[in-house]
Every structure is written in structure tokens, then in C-alpha cells.
Specification:
Oligomer: heterotrimer
Largest sheet of chain C: 8 strands, mixed
Strand content of chain C: 15-25%
Order of helices and strands of chain C: EEEHEEHEHHHHHEHEHEEHHHEEH
CATH topology of the largest domain in chain C: Rossmann fold
Chains: A mainly alpha, B alpha/beta, C alpha/beta
Order of helices and strands of chain A: HHHHHHHHHHH
CATH superfamily of the largest domain in chain C: P-loop containing nucleotide triphosphate hydrolases
Shape of chain A: globular
Strand order of the largest sheet of chain C: 6-7-8-3-9-10-12-11
Number of strands of chain A: 0
Distance between the termini of chain C: 34 Å
Number of strands of chain C: 12
Structural class of chain A: mainly alpha
Helix content of chain C: 25-40%
Helix content of chain A: over 70%
Largest interface: B-C, 43 and 41 residues
Radius of gyration of chain C: 21 Å
């Protein structure tokens, strides 16, 4: 058994790394996670994440003391960037932690009860959510609620779950006639058994792949909301509001906007490459 | 003959089509299954053999007629039968690829019936699963394997073991070996025969393979377009097939020895196509392909007649004689 | 003695696949030939290399497949190193193929008429035939496969035909294109037994009439016995026994063939053998000697260490087995 597991792991690594770049994706993601977790330790000026004003050091270009320069309040951009990674990752994790289970249950139920009113009701609701452009929907929800990090997460979650419903619907509706499902029904299995013990393991591959890819997009979406002022509120740093602060001083003080922007690009790229590799392990087609 | 475990009376199952027509998948079939025997239900595609099986096991409710299991009518119940009945009537499906969940271990798949019918502590459950595996001749280490790591025949044996978990009395075998190689089929079939003797199981064996039925069935029933053509004890059936369709079917089987060639009613050459069950021919449904077709066959439906003890045939030729 | 001409000859063919950096040796020294106007069967269980052989004959091995050695001669020319245009010619005019499932072989949205024209245009491109002449050939071929009313068939789409009719259409296309070889991959397995019987009789009569040479690949011993004149029994990528069909079925020599015959349920009854213990070997490290040795009831040390070579036993019947060779 041990040998079999080892063999399976080697095989999975082979499939994962076959594309080459997925290893880079993995490295980027690991780096981002480490930086976020240890941000307070690594950051040279952790106190700069808050409402600190150091006029003496304001608006400095990148140097040895401040490798990404300082902002107009004299706060270290590198430190603020590190701290903002935590909020971004937290957002990605929490949004998916809610959107995925909700979407899964709704989608599987609709797929399992295909051609009945259950499917009609659930999937029409899903379609309505999907028909409104994602950003517009998130903006609208975030604008109605009080602007803060928590509410921006709620907004993104509401626009994100239908994608998982659609994914799970596809899997469940194609599997529902499989004999092992029919067998479970005939033997008297409960609905919860069929959803969580039969459908869940079969949907897992595709969901995990999509989740990895989506992490980057959720973080990007969170940054968009905070860019327009609907996310984390100043003085707390977030990738979006840092860019927003910085664009006013372009191009002279380029470091204010460019560093957070590049960070977003790297995050999205990292999760994308990683997601491709995960998809290769499970032979899931790119979305 | 012993006790009757299952009696099907004038069973009908119609499926409506989107365009308003209906498919008469099963149209008035009656037969009995005795305790401890194997009844072979044989026919080509569209003959309704699987529909009968699925109605008996509860996937469909019947459109008409009765399915009496130990005297209780289950025909219209579908999934709404009692848990005890669900446990006593089990099914083994054809496709070894789809009968087990590919993402769960053998043990997890085998826990499904145990969790529903026979709740027990974890250690006892593992013990029971090992015991079931042993019954079908598989090593107990198989419980931690994934379906993709074992062969098709072994997967079918797991399906059998899983069916045995609820202590069934009647097992529907829906072409359990038709997707397997013959060397593998042999093992599965021999295991099924052994289990039947040991546990006094009754089998309703659905298949298109008459050669297999020769070696497995106690009695054989031939279906054509939703109706029974002939029903007889196996030995009698193969030595004196009466219905023209049965004769055509037998003579179409590719065989491998001269002795077998001698048994085939050699003169009958297969002709014509199987009509669609949506508009089955009037009168005897087989008359369009029958070489002995008479005028009466085109208009009047023949009825099942017992021409010899326990040998039933549904054909005007024999009705005229009797 | 009458001179034999081989339309197709497979010599010492070995093929391997590479999956996840692991090399699997699927075919090992496969030899057989097809005489003009004869039908040859290749029979074996799933995973024995039938499909790989078939793909090699059409030179359509998947990209991870490699021909390790051997050649496939079509009218004396090796198709494995033919230039592309010649290979195209060979596929269009040399060998036609019918499949297990006739519904996948015909494009569902193209009428039968256009499918014929497509195939025939290429096959007869040197002769500069008109469309009417091509359709005439099509109609004649449809009559040859006993499809009455060719016009109606030509005007229909595949879904309007039954499975048996579609299989006949596929055969008719091969006939009309005047291809020499019909590669039949499990023909009729997806059809009902009474319909399969009709298709097999048709193929047999076409071969006997000298219209076609047939290579039939199947898992069904019965089908092979009914249709072919020569048979090759394949096990784990090697041909273990071959020769005249009647001879081989009358006196199977190789332990694998014998076991296979015993496993088949017979119309005469008497039960079924216990099956063959074990399973086909792992192709990434196949047995060093006879590939059947690990499952063979008559295995000796020699079988485990030495590869058996074909041994004639008379009547155009040979087998690769030390037991037969040593007369045990």
C-alpha cells in the first residue's frame, strides 16, 4: 500500500510538472503564502500598515532602507504590500470556502433532479446571476452595503457561487444514470449519501482545479473593489486602495502604483499556472 | 418444482415519446420464477428484457399487470417498496465500469448497503466486508483498492459481493458478463453458480447469449419485441426449439465446435430487420421475418400455449395442432 | 502448385508505447499474411494487441507508439516508411475499414450519397469518372451487399438506417472504392446476433466471390470460425498459434487456445471451465520466455527462460509452444 501511494505520488508529480511552468506557479504561490503568513515578521516597518505619519521619510524613491520606496505619508510601501497580501489571501480563501459548497449543493441537486421542477427553479436562479456581468453585480452589492473588507467578500461570494453550481450541475447530470448511483437508490440510500458520498468525490477534481485557478481571479476582483473604494478602508493597506492612492502621483512617484499592480499580476499568474498543473493531474480540460 | 418466489402476470411497461407515440417495451408478459432456480431471459435489443428486470427491481413502475414477490404486488411501487424488499431483491449491472464509483475504494462502495440495511460498528463492518469478498473468491486486501486498479471481472465480483451484503433472496443479473472476456466470464459465472447453491439464491438472468444460458439456466424464456415467444426447461429448449424465432436465433449463433454445429437448426437463415418497438407489427410481432408466416399471423396475436409440460410457445403453428 | 500472392504481409512487427516515461512492449514479432481473395482472422481477448495491430496496418499508431522492428508489406511495399502521398493512396484505395459500431463510422450529417462520392472521388481519381459513373458504382455496390432500393439508401442519412444497414453501407463503400482489403474490427459485435449473422454471411460470400481480401479482428472465436479461412490466435502481443481455420479449431495445440475454447460456453452444455487463472502480463516488463508461461498449466523452466518459435505441426498449422514442439 505504501509503495502504491508513493508510485501514485510520483505519477501525479510527473503529470503536474509535464507542462513545466506549473512548477513555477507552485513556487510563486508558496512564496506568496509564506510572505503573507510571516508578513509581520518580514516587514521592515510593520507599524506602517496603520495610520502612521512619518513626514521626514515621505515620498522617497526606492532605496536600501525602503526597497519599494515610501508613500506620501512616509510609510514603507514594501511593508504595506506584505501586510495587504494577508487580506487578499484571506479574501480568496473565505470567498471560495462559502461559494464552493453552496454552488456544489445547488448544482448537484439540480443535476440529480434533471428534467424536474427542482432543476428548473435552481438553474434559472443560477442563470439570472450569471447573466449579470460579474463586476457590475459585485459593485452594486458592495455599494448597497457599508464599504469594508467583509462586505466586499460577501459581494464577491454572491457573484461567484453560480459558477460552481454550473460546474457541479454538469458533472451530476452526466453521472446520475451511472449504475452505482442507481444501485444506491435501489438499495435505499438517502439523498445526503448520494450527494456527499457518491457525487462529491467525482466532482472533487474539477472543483479543486477551478478553485486553484479562481483564487487568483477572486484576489483580482477584491483588488478591483478596493480600488474603487468598496473594499478595505484606509489607512489599512489593500492592493486595490494602494494602487488607487498611487495613480494620482503617476508618473513621478511610479513606485506607489506599479509595485502593487505587479504584485496582482504575479498572484494571478501564479495561481493560473498552478491551476493548469492541478488540472493536468486530474486530466481536467482547461476552463 | 418448489415455491414460487416471483410471479409476473401480464406485465406491461409503456414509455411515452415526445411526439405522442408510445414505445411498448413490455407488452403482456407472464412468467414465474421458482425459488433456487435460474430463469434465463433472452432476447435481442428492444425485446424488453432489461425493462422487465428494471421493473422487478423497482427502477420503474409498471404500466399494467402485476409483479408478485412472495405474494405482494410490487408492480406500481417503483422506489416506494419497503427497505426489507429492497434488500431482498438485488441487482448486478452489466457495465463493470459504471457499477462502482471510480473515486471510492472497494470498501467504501461495499459499505453502502451495510450502512443502510445492517448498521454495525466499524470493526464488525470491516469483518463483514472481508467475509463477503471471500465469498466471491477475492482476497480481503482488495477492500483498500480503487476500482481502476482491478480487472473488469473482479469489479463484477465486487458488485456481486455488494449485492450479497443485504442477504438477498432474488438477484437480478443484467448481462453481468457480456462486457467481459470469456476467460474472465468463466470465473464470474462459476462463482455465481456456487453462490446460488450455497445460499439458495434465485436468479433472473438477463442476457443475449444463448450459449451461456445453456450452461447456467434452469429454464429459458425468449422475448421478441416486448412479448414472450417461448419458455421451456433448458435441456428441452435446446433440443427441440419450437418457435420460428427461437430457431432463427439458435441458428445465428457463431459456434466453435462441430458438435455445436449439429445442434443448431441449420436450415434457418436469418432474414429481415428487427422492427422498431414504436410501431410493432400487427398480429404476431414476428410475422414480418417468419418463414412459416400464415394469413392468421398477420392479423391475430397468438397466445401462450403449453405444448408439452412446462414448455410454452406463443405461435399459431402450434395452437393449430393443439 | 498454384502461386499464392500476398496482398498484405506483416513481418516481425514489434510495437511499443511510451506512457509517463515507461515503455510498454505491446507487440512482439507478429507475423502473418493475407492471401489475395482470402480472409484472415486475428482473435484474442481485450488487451492482447489486436487494435494495435490494426492501427499499425493502417499506419495510424498514436503519437506515443513506436515501431521497434519489422515491416508491413502491401503489394511488396513497406507501408511503414512510405512517403505521405503514397500512404494516402494506400488508405484510400488499398484498405477499407469497418468498425464494431457502424454508427460512428459514418458522418451523421452527410447523406450516404455524399459519403460515397467523397470516398469514390479519391479512390478513382486517376480514371476521371463523372459523378454519374461514380454513383452507378455506388448503386452496384449497394446491390452487392443486398440492400434493395439503392436510390433510397443513397438519399438517406445514417440515422435513418438501422445498425445492420449502416454496416452494409460501410462494406459497400469499400467495394465501390475497389479497395483490396477490408479490415473488419469486431464487425457486428454491436449488432444483434441475427443481424450479425447476416453481416458475417455477407462478408463470407464476398470473399468467396473473390471481391475482397479480409482481415478480421475480433474477440469471438465463433465469428472467426464462421468467416475466415486462416486464423491467428493472439495472446499478450504475440501470435501463439495459427493456420487453417478448420485445423486450428479442430485440434487446438497451444495451451492458451485450448483454455480459451474450454472457457467458452457451448450449446452442447456440460458447464464451463474454471477460467484462466491470472491476467495478461504487464507490458512494461513482459515475461522473458513465453508470454503465456506464468498462466500456463504445462509450464517448464524452458518456457520461462526461452522464447518459443513457430513450430509446424502439419496441415498448415503451427504453434509457438515448447509443449507441442517436444511432443509432450
Amino acid at each position: 500500500m505504501k509503495a502504491e501511494q508513493k508510485e501514485a505520488m510520483i505519477k501525479n508529480w510527473y503529470k503536474f510538472s509535464a507542462g513545466g511552468v506549473s512548477v513555477i506557479g507552485l513556487a510563486i504561490v508558496l512564496l506568496i503564502i509564506l510572505l503573507a503568513v510571516f508578513a509581520p515578521v518580514i516587514a521592515p516597518y510593520p507599524e506602517d500598515a496603520g495610520a502612521v505619519v512619518k513626514f521626514a521619510e515621505s515620498s522617497q524613491a526606492p532605496s536600501m532602507e525602503h526597497i519599494m520606496g515610501t508613500d506620501t505619508m512616509g510609510r514603507d510601501v514594501f511593508s504595506r504590500l506584505l501586510i495587504s497580501l494577508r487580506g487578499s489571501l484571506l479574501m480568496g480563501v473565505l470567498v471560495l470556502a462559502i461559494a464552493v459548497p453552496v454552488g456544489f449543493v445547488v448544482g448537484v441537486l439540480a443535476g440529480y433532479y434533471k428534467d424536474t421542477w427542482v432543476e428548473t427553479v435552481l438553474m434559472r436562479i443560477v442563470d439570472i446571476f450569471l447573466s449579470v456581468p460579474a463586476l457590475v453585480l459585485a459593485l452594486a452589492i458592495a455599494a448597497i452595503l457599508e464599504p469594508n473588507l467583509r462586505n466586499s467578500m460577501i459581494a464577491i461570494t454572491i457573484m461567484w457561487w453560480p459558477w460552481y453550481a454550473r460546474l457541479s450541475f454538469g458533472v451530476a447530470s452526466s453521472l446520475r444514470t451511472e449504475n452505482y448511483i442507481v444501485y444506491a437508490e435501489l438499495t435505499g440510500a438517502k439523498l445526503s449519501h448520494i450527494i456527499f458520498k457518491e457525487f462529491l468525490p467525482n466532482t472533487f477534481d474539477q472543483i479543486l482545479t477551478k478553485m486553484t485557478l479562481d483564487m487568483g481571479y477572486v484576489i483580482c476582483m477584491g483588488a478591483t473593489l478596493s480600488f474603487v473604494g468598496l473594499g478595505e478602508q484606509p489607512p489599512m493597506p489593500a492592493l486595490g486602495n494602494m494602487i488607487n492612492d498611487g495613480v494620482k502621483f503617476l508618473p513621478e512617484m511610479w513606485w506607489l502604483a506599479i509595485y502593487p499592480a505587479v504584485t496582482i499580476i504575479i498572484i494571478v499568474l501564479g495561481f493560473n499556472l498552478l491551476g493548469d498543473g492541478v488540472g493536468n493531474i486530474f486530466n481536467v480540460e482547461g476552463k | 418444482m418448489g415455491d414460487i418466489i416471483l410471479e409476473i402476470k401480464n406485465l406491461k411497461k409503456y414509455f411515452p415519446l415526445a411526439d405522442g407515440r408510445t414505445v411498448k417495451a413490455v407488452d403482456g408478459v407472464s412468467m414465474k420464477l421458482y425459488k433456487g432456480e435460474t430463469l434465463g431471459l433472452v432476447g435481442e435489443s428492444g425485446c424488453g428484457k432489461s425493462t422487465i428486470a428494471y421493473t422487478v427491481v423497482g427502477m420503474y413502475g409498471a404500466s399494467g399487470g402485476e409483479v408478485l414477490y412472495k405474494g405482494t404486488d410490487l408492480a406500481k411501487k417503483g422506489y416506494k417498496r419497503t427497505l426489507k424488499q429492497k434488500g431482498e431483491i438485488q441487482i448486478v449491472f452489466q457495465d463493470p465500469g459504471s457499477s462502482l464509483n471510480s473515486r471510492r475504494t472497494i470498501e467504501k462502495s461495499m459499505e453502502v448497503p451495510l450502512d443502510i440495511h445492517d448498521r454495525m460498528p466499524k470493526e464488525k463492518k470491516t469483518e463483514r466486508i472481508e467475509e463477503l469478498l471471500e465469498m466471491v473468491g477475492l482476497p480481503k486486501e482488495y477492500k483498500s483498492k480503487m476500482p481502476r486498479n482491478i480487472g473488469g471481472g473482479e469489479r463484477q465480483l465486487i458488485s456481486v459481493a455488494r449485492a450479497l451484503a443485504t442477504n438477498p433472496e432474488l438477484i437480478i443479473l443484467d448481462e453481468p458478463t457480456s462486457a467481459l472476456d470469456v476467460s474472465v466470464q468463466a470465473k464470474v459465472i462459476n462463482t455465481l453458480i456456487e453462490l446460488q447453491k450455497k445460499l439458495e439464491l434465485s436468479y433472473l438472468f438477463i442476457t443475449h447469449d444463448l450459449s451461456l444460458m445453456r450452461n447456467v439456466a434452469t429454464r429459458v424464456a425468449i422475448l421478441y419485441l416486448g412479448r414472450l415467444c417461448e419458455l421451456a426447461p433448458t435441456t428441452e429448449f435446446f433440443h427441440g426449439p419450437l418457435h420460428p424465432y427461437t430457431q432463427m436465433l439458435l441458428s445465428s449463433i457463431p459456434v466453435v465446435t462441430e458438435e455445436e454445429e449439429a445442434i443448431k437448426p441449420g436450415q434457418i437463415i436469418s432474414q429481415g430487420e428487427i422492427p422498431s418497438p414504436v410501431n410493432a407489427p400487427k398480429g404476431c410481432t414476428f410475422h414480418t421475418r417468419c418463414r412459416d408466416c400464415m394469413e392468421i399471423c398477420k392479423t391475430e396475436m397468438p397466445v401462450m400455449t403449453e405444448v408439452e409440460p412446462e414448455h410454452f410457445v406463443c405461435c399459431h403453428k402450434y395452437k393449430a395442432k393443439g | 502448385m498454384e502461386e499464392k500472392t500476398n496482398v498484405l504481409e506483416v513481418r516481425d512487427l514489434s510495437v511499443s508505447y511510451t506512457v509517463a516515461n515507461v515503455k510498454t512492449h505491446v507487440l512482439e514479432n507478429v507475423n502473418f499474411s493475407v492471401e489475395k481473395g482470402k480472409s484472415v482472422g486475428i482473435v484474442g481477448e481485450s488487451g492482447c494487441g489486436k487494435t494495435t495491430t490494426m492501427r499499425a496496418i493502417l499506419n495510424v499508431l498514436p503519437s506515443n507508439g513506436t515501431v521497434e522492428s519489422g515491416e508491413i508489406l502491401y503489394n511488396g511495399e513497406n507501408i511503414l516508411n512510405m512517403p505521405n502521398n503514397k500512404l494516402q493512396d494506400y488508405r484510400q484505395k488499398g484498405a477499407g475499414m469497418i468498425f464494431q459500431d457502424p454508427s460512428s463510422a459514418l458522418n451523421p450529417v452527410i447523406s450516404i450519397r455524399n459519403q460515397f462520392l467523397e470516398a469514390l472521388k479519391y479512390a478513382h481519381k486517376d480514371k476521371k469518372l463523372t459523378k454519374a459513373q461514380l454513383l452507378e458504382k455506388a448503386a452496384k455496390a449497394l446491390e452487392q451487399v443486398s440492400l434493395a432500393d439503392p436510390d433510397r439508401i443513397l438519399n438517406s442519412y445514417p440515422f435513418q438506417l438501422s445498425g445492420g444497414m449502416r454496416q452494409r453501407v460501410c462494406i459497400a463503400i469499400t467495394l465501390a472504392a475497389e479497395r483490396q482489403i477490408l479490415l473488419a474490427d469486431e464487425p457486428g459485435t454491436a449488432l444483434d446476433v441475427t443481424i450479425q449473422d447476416q453481416i458475417l454471411r455477407l462478408i463470407k460470400s464476398l470473399v468467396e466471390a473473390g471481391e475482397l481480401s479480409v482481415i478480421m479482428v475480433t474477440h469471438s472465436l465463433g465469428v472467426i470460425r464462421q468467416v475466415t479461412t486462416a486464423v491467428n490466435i493472439m495472446y499478450a502481443g504475440t501470435i501463439v498459434e495459427g493456420g487453417d481455420t478448420k485445423e486450428v479449431f479442430g485440434h487446438p495445440m497451444h495451451p492458451y487456445t485450448q483454455a480459451l475454447m474450454d472457457c467458452l460456453p457451448k450449446l452442447t452444455g456440460n458447464g464451463i471451465a474454471k477460467g484462466i487463472p491470472g491476467r495478461i502480463p504487464d507490458y512494461s516488463s513482459p515475461p522473458g520466455g513465453c508470454r503465456f508461461a506464468p498462466r500456463c498449466p504445462y509450464v517448464t523452466d524452458r518456457c520461462l527462460n526461452e522464447k518459443p518459435v513457430p513450430h509446424e505441426t502439419g496441415g498448415g498449422h503451427w504453434t509457438s509452444c515448447f509443449k507441442a514442439e517436444e511432443g509432450r
